[in-house]
Amino acid sequence: MSLFIAQLLNGLQFGILLFLLAAGLTLVFGIMSFINLAHGVLYMLGAYFAAAAFALTQSFLLGVIVATVGVFLVAAAADRLGLSVLHRRDHLDQVLATFGIVIFCNELVRWIWGNAPVFMDTPAALSDSLDIFGFIYPAYRLVILAAGLVVAVGLYWLIERTRIGMLIRAGASNRVMVSALGVNIGWLNVFIFALGGGLAGLAGALIGPITSVQPGMGDGVLILTLVVIVIGGIGSIRGAFLGALIVGLVDTLGRIYLPMLLRNIADPSVANAVGPALASIGVYLLMAVVLAFKPDGLFPVRRRQG
Amino acid sequence: MGVQSIQKLIEKDKVDLITGVTFSNVMMAVAKPLADANMIFIGSNAGPGPLAGPQCNQNFFFTSWQNDAQSEVMGKFAADRGYKRVYVMAPNYQAGKDFVSGFKRFYPTPLVGEVYTQLNQPDYSAEIAQMMAAKPDALYVFYPGGMGVAFVRQMRQAGALGKVPLLSTSTTDGSTLPALKETALGVLSGTFWGPDFPNPVSQKFVADFRAKYKRIPSQYAAQAYDAALLLDSALKKTGGKVDDKAALRAALRQADFKSLRGNFKFSANGFPVQDMHVFEVAKDSTGEVSLKTIATPLKAHADAYVSQCPLK
Amino acid sequence: MHRLRVPLMVLILIAFALVPVYCWWVDSVYPLTLFGRILVFALAALGLNLALGFGGMVSLGHAMYIGFGAYAVGIGSALGLESGALQILLAMLITALIAAPLGWIALRTQGIAFIMITLAFAQLFYYVFISLRMFGGDDGMTIQKLSAWGALTGNKVAIYLSLVAALVLAIWGISRTVQSRFGLVLRATMVSERRVNAVGTPSLPYRLAAYVISAELCAVAGYFLANLTSFVSPAYMAWTLSGELIVMALLGGSATVFGPVVGALALLLLEEGLKAFTDRWALILGPIIVLIVVFLRQGIWGLLSDPSEKPPGGSGGAHG
Hints:
The complex is a heterotrimer of chains A (about 300), B (about 300) and C (about 325). With about 300 residues, chain A is an all-alpha fold. Chain A has helices at about 1-30, 40-55, 60-80, 90-115, 140-160, 165-175, 175-180, 185-205, 215-230, 235-265, 270-295; strands spanning about 130, 135-140. The mean pLDDT of chain B is about 85. Chain B is built from eleven helices and eleven strands. In chain B, strands 4, 5, 6, 7, 8, 9, 10 and 11 form an eight-stranded mixed beta sheet that branches. In chain B, strands 1-2-3 form a three-stranded parallel beta sheet, covered by helices on one side. Chain B is globular, with a radius of gyration of 20 Å. The two termini of chain B are about 35 Å apart.
């Protein structure tokens, strides 16, 4: 039973990790209606910037800061330099153009840093594990948990409670009117896009040390992130947060308990073959089921017309 | 993609001989075009089972290993060490399953756990927790490349690395150690060659490599180097001529060269008969993180599929 | 300008058919292999575009149907079912059985949700085939005995020419379909589904039919792919391949019938040329894709077309 609680915690923690990744994407997608497949690439850049800064200064904190600010600036520059053309195009165009950017950036990273994984480690102080109710829990995961929660609360507060947030929501509803009221909508959009990028960079810097920093690292997580957003409901931070938790739980518990269940009812060799496959497709099945009944996701923002 | 490149080399560039192929799935895909073209091939990495068995070909020579050998040696090691409760993990794809069956071939005691994780899964904390709960005396894993880096890091962070001996294949090698460094100290792995081998060919290779590339060569570099040495020896015998395929084939089969790994001999199916060793990640005399030979459980080991090969 | 279209198209198709002659002339099988692959993807992109360009359905999962076609050959051959005709029939039957319910579920959603759900289903089957160890799993399966067609079994030229024939047939078929009443309704649903329903025509059957037909064409393409490469693997179903098909359709011109064929030709020749030039070809291909999306939205073939034909989307364009 206590192992089950530990796995539950693992599932929730994985969900928060997914939220960190999804936060930036849902901001850009939900509010600006811009599908940015290059979000995975921004995440990758964050991890590489952090690794480079860490290699130079041996300071993890500096690495995280460099990554967040660095990717923020890269995203802002990209937007100002032309990506903004895509804001007014439809989703298909955005998917394709950002797809082109993804293959370009993956190759660029490969060129600069090489194909092999790059070294990055968690700070020494956080590399141990803590004993929580008899479970060994890595301290660093708690950092990720805390970061995810801070980002969730911070974003919510920013969007719902500040003036900038109000302008962002208004701009998403009706660009022209906001512009007519004297607000510089162009810079506002650049800010949102850059913020989304910064969040991706932060995620890359925080998650890099526990996985592998290598070219193409963003591609796999990108799909999972898109799944989270679609399940949670496009446009809402709350949807992204809850969607991430659900996906995290379903995926983790599925991976552990499905094969176990199968072993009880079928031959071990069958269970070993089918179990992991079922667990892999579990999240996709969940998404298909959710979309079949609630095409707008579980917690969608009420779409305004226009 | 691999099939296209091979088809291009065979049909457009009309090459005489091809070497290489990193991944087993690509190797399987290109086997037929190579065989159809009667192309001489020197494999320097992937050595999938079917090509050692029923699909063996007189034109194929491998200077690396048959895939299973690297896990077989760890299985033998586990049996030799007397581990009773062994837990096994690998990614859920063909290579993962092959390596686990290789391990089991030489480790007869029933496993306490056999878990297959998703390919390129980012987070192993749930599986690590499950493994720790099973209280095994040793853990064997196959996690190549990025998966290896992620897994070892997460094991260290979960505090599991010190508690459960970690036996592995392709998880801590020249391609992942630069990313892991001290995190991987103490992890054991199995393969045919390590940078601390005493024979003069190997020593020179390591020294030259370090001078030029400023890092310790991986086994993958060693395999490719041996492929080049093999080819060189064969060409010396045929006087540099490649038109007579039969003569080139015979010269390759003789394998009359001084290999990095000591003795080198081919089996009837074109795969090497060689010693397999176990290595531990440790700091070498210069303080760099490297691999240290600690045992040689399999000597003059032929692969498990040679009996299925019709060639004699 | 668009009066040149039909003659130009015929010229291109004749050139495709003459590739075996060129091969004989330069004494190399390579052009056959290269153009065979181009035609396979041309057929698949053509099929996809019926749903994408004329129905407004952005499917990131069509590569899955290519996989079905290829596996029908592979699994059939492994299980002793070697007849080429039976394999094609089997591929098309299975595709219909799967595309119909899948399409029905997906068409309940719109926009990004549709894209994601088609992606999800493709990933699902991708993982299923990876776990099928007896058929090679992710290593894939070499096909020792190609589809049996009597004396022509395994004859690469025959396979290639029948592929050309299939492509010509498909072009003719889609062209007729687009101009028929069915096509009219389909294209109308792309502009506004609500209005189509308002005049009393249910939009779902038309869109679903277009989806299934496009899937069938991909399956046929998959059958040819397996025969040309003597190999099948789950990589044929990767979502990145679906993405490439969409790029091909757009590059050529998604508002036209022949556009996707041109797109496949252009993209694959471009890749081929770039690869010969540098290992870092993605550095050049990526920006090219971006530039095309931004500046050449109507596609290469689209440049030759009627200005009244507009590609789906472009600016704004949510289908309500």
